[in-house]
Amino acid sequence: MQKSADHPRLILASNSPRRRELLAQAGITFTVIPSGVDEHKVAVSDPDVLVRTLAESKAIDIAEKHPDSWVLGADTIVVIDNQILGKPDSAGAAREMLKRLSGNIHQVFTGFCVCCRRKARLFTDAVKTDVCFKSLSDAEIEWYIRTGEPFDKAGGYGIQGIGSVLVKSIQGSYTNVVGLPVCEVMSFLIGEGVIALD
Predict the structure, then answer these.
(1) Could you report the per-residue pLDDT of 126-183, keeping only the tens digit for each?
(2) On the chain, which terminus has fewer CB atoms closer than 10 Å, C or N?
(3) Of 124, 121, 128, which is closest to residue 53 (Cα–Cα)?
(4) CATH code, domain with 183
(5) How far is it, in rounded angstroms, from Cα 197 to Cα 3?
């Protein structure tokens, strides 16, 4: 797969190493230009609407500066019992999150937006995945916190890393939990001719 010769480049409006890895694994050629959108200024409580709004804001922020390019923005959140879990800023916060997730099913929402200003094209969608955690012992929680992995991850875990041992099962898109629903993103990019199938 490659960027179509008669279309401008694709820009990922995110500094997430996980999103970069997912796009690279899919064989997509892209450039990274992180958005400067302040996520904390978006006051939306509905998870689906929140991730769509943030993804769209990020994509538009970069698209305004690069109108000839296609821009991909995304945002991922973890939700349990209608409460959004952000990134833990301390061991105590990580411990509390992992105890809430232990033995329970939670949801991961990722919103994504692909737009091109020059073509007046903007598409936004959101994907939800149910994730079931195994019941964690206190020792397992403390061990995982010591790995340092929880601290830059929404919900305090990374399914693509050591955190995979905490996850009993998922229903839905795995890549969505990592940070980008690759199947849905690819379908749109191919449909628009942004990338070509060799």
Answers:
(1) 999 999 999 999 999 999 999 999 998 999 999 999 999 999 999 999 999 999 999 9
(2) C
(3) 124
(4) 3.90.950.10
(5) 9
Written as six digits, the tokens of 76 are: 């991922």
> CB atoms < 10 A from the CB of 134, how many?
14
**Count of structural domains within the chain:** 1
Q: What is the pTM of this model?
A: 0.91
| Inter-residue contact 37 to 62 (CB < 8 Å) | no
The token pair at 139 is: 């020792």
Which residue's entry shows tokens 């959101």?
A: 126
- For 101-126, the pLDDT digits (tens) are 999 999 999 999 999 999 999 999 99
Q: Which residue in 69, 73, 101, 72 sits closest to 85, CA to CA?
A: 101
At which residue do the structure tokens 């929402």 appear? Answer: 109
Which amino acid does the sequence have at 120? A
Instruction: Give the model's confidence band at 8: pLDDT under 50 very low, under 70 low, under 90 confident, else very high.
Output: low
Name the residues annotated as catalytic: 75
The residue range of the domain holding 188 is: 2-196
